[in-house]
Every structure is written in structure tokens, then in C-alpha cells.
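Weekly structure sync, notes
Attendees: PL (lead), two postdocs, one rotation student
Agenda item 3: pending single-chain targets
PL asked that the sequence for the first pending target be pasted directly into the notes so everyone works from the same version. It is reproduced below exactly as submitted, 416 residues in total.
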Amino acid sequence: MSIDGIDEARLPALRRRMVWTLFAVSALGTTGYIAAVTAGTLVAAEMAGSASAGGLPTTTTTLGTAAAASLLSFIMLRFGRRLGMLAGIGGGVVGGGLALAAILVGSIPLFLVGCLLTGFANGAGQLGRYIAADLAVPERRASTIGTVVWGATIGAVAGPNLIAPAGEVAGLLGLPPLAGAYLLTVTFIGLAFLIAFVFLRPEPYRLADPSAMRAHPEGTANASIATLLRNPSVLVALVTLVAGQVVMVLIMTMTALHLTDHGHGLGTVGFVLSAHTFGMFALSPITGRLTDRFGSPRVIAAGLTTLALAAVLAAVAPPDGGALLTLALFLLGYGWNLGFVAGSAMLTAGLVLAERTRVQGVADGLIWTTAALASLLSGVVVDAASYAALGLLGLALLAVPAALMLARGGRAARPA
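Predicted structure, written out during the meeting:
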């Protein structure tokens, strides 16, 4: 027996291969992306001759991720998930190449264009978790999302640590040392493109679980985004994802500067931020299992509580940082992870494939746009007040998703 021309007996194996393909794309793409983001601040400051330009690459790359979310979702709706993924990852390869060329010719505008396009690869990788969700039965959906998000752990660890060796390779090739980071970007995102091109087939929509293929209720086939947002699951998930991203970025962005301003070296900075990234990605499979076991609303509530605790600890941690700030940054990462995995799973509840793709593009666009704004706001708050004020502001912002959960969470996350 076949479904859409695919032997039904082969579907489980094809779905598993697809999930692990998305895991590999996430791992490789994140390695190249984070290498670019890590080096971007140094490159821009060196090219401009001013530290004030250092924040431009991160902001531009984040905005590229936001733009990619909407654009790639549009492509996926019309031409399929596979083509959308390839377009985004391919854009990242081009972006890495442009950034590398910009370093060689000393052009900041060209460098920022390259950063913008590099964000497209990250946008595609982020949408990969939703593709994985389409493949899973409802009771395994969050675990499947967690598997793909887990792939980013490799990139979060490998990306920054490969920059120094890549700089040595660049020197041997007669290139500036910082150009090595973008050799990594082109290489790793290029590998992600090749893997997606070869293994991201057949079209992921054709492998979707039947739970995502139910018929539309009469009159809802072309429901507007505003109509879809009235779905309690969609609204709670969207607010949770955006609020978690804002609070995480708000506090995390200025942590390195806070530590160096109080006399800590790069070793301490690296250790604290490693604890943060470990919390963000490494425990994703556990988060997925917890979400499948206890439901998205409870895990989201746990995530908001964890973020609130992290914000308080960051605010009260002594100026010299120490173990308390390290714990705060770990909890900040894991609170974000709880909301990210559970919120992403909730965003698929009760929606068919076309609706999911539209809403997911809007969600990720908002997530990354607000992340860019939070990054800029973080510096403003520290200049006007203090690092502790960031924690208190983050705590206040969490009141919005918490109130929404209390008001509408009971009706959220109905099975798809």
C-alpha cells in the first residue's frame, strides 16, 4: 500500500532519516553561523577603527534571520519545504562568501550584506524544527523538535573554538586571521547545503504525519493570521517564544562586558557563556520528553519560572560574578530552552500544514526581530542604569506571558 506514491512500509524509515538530516543541518549550519557571529564584532570594529561598530554585524545577522523566517515560509508554502530550506542555507553560503570578500577589500557595507545573508542559514535551520514536528505523531512531537534543537549544541561548542585554528589556516593562505572565521562559515554551511540537497527528500510535506493532514473546517481554509492568532495554542505559544527570546537576549548580551568591566578575563567570560549555551541547547532531548509527558503548558510555566529565577539571580549577583552569575546564565539558557521547545510544539497544535507554515514564519520573524531590538536595548539599559537593572526588567517582561498563561493556558495545546 502506498501513500502519495510512497510505500507505507518505508514511511517510518524515511521520517527518521529526515529528522536526522535536519539534526545534521542544524549542527553544521549553527557551527558556521556562530563562527561568523563570534568574529563579526571583531571584524567590524577593526574595519571601522571604532568599537562602536562592533554591534552592527550581530544586529544585521539577527535581522537576516528574521527576514528569512518570513521569506522562506512564503517559499515553502508555494514550492515546498525542501526548496525553502535550500534557498535559506544557500543564502548563508553566499553570505559567508561575501563577508570573506568584504574583509579582503575592506568594505563594511559589503560585510554587513554578507552578515545579513548569513542569517538566512540560521533562519532555515530554525524552521527545520517545525519540519521535524510535521513528521511526528502528536505524542512524540516535542521530542522530535528537541532532537533537532539539540543539534545546535554542536555548533554552539565548535563554532567559537574553531576560530583560532581557522585563523592559523587563513594565515598560511596569506589571508587576514579573522578571515578564517568566514572560511568556517562557507565550509560548514556549505556542508549543510550538500546534506540537505542529497537527503532532504522526498518533499517533507509528503512525509507529514496524518494528524497534520486533517481537513479544514468549512470556511477556514484561507484563515487570516489574525484569525489563527485567536487560537489559544497559537497565541500562548507565540507570546512565550517572543518573551523568552527577549529576556534571554536582554540579559545575555551584556554579560561578557559586565564581567570584563569587573576585572574578569576571557577565560571566565568563556566559562560563564559556555554554561549559558549548555543550558540553551544540550538538554533539549530532556525538554522534549518532559513536554510530551506533561504537556506544553506545564513546561512553558516551568520555563517562565526558571527565567524569572535567572533574572533575579543576575540582578542580585555580586559585581565580581562568580558561581551565582554562572548559575544565573545557565538557568537563563535552560529557561529559554523549556519555553522554546514547548512553545514550538504548542505552535503546531490544532493546525494543518499550510496554517502551520504561515504561523511559524510569523513566529520566527517576530522572535528574531525582537531579539535584535533586545540586543540594542540591553546596552541602553546598562548605560542608563546598571547590569542589575537588566535582570529586573527581564523579570517585569515575564509578567506578560505569565498572565496570558493564567488567562488562556487552560485552553491551549489541544491535540492536533
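Discussion points:
- The two ends are 25 Å apart (CA to CA).
- Residues 93 and 186 are 5 Å apart (CA to CA).
Action: rotation student to compare against the earlier draft before next sync.
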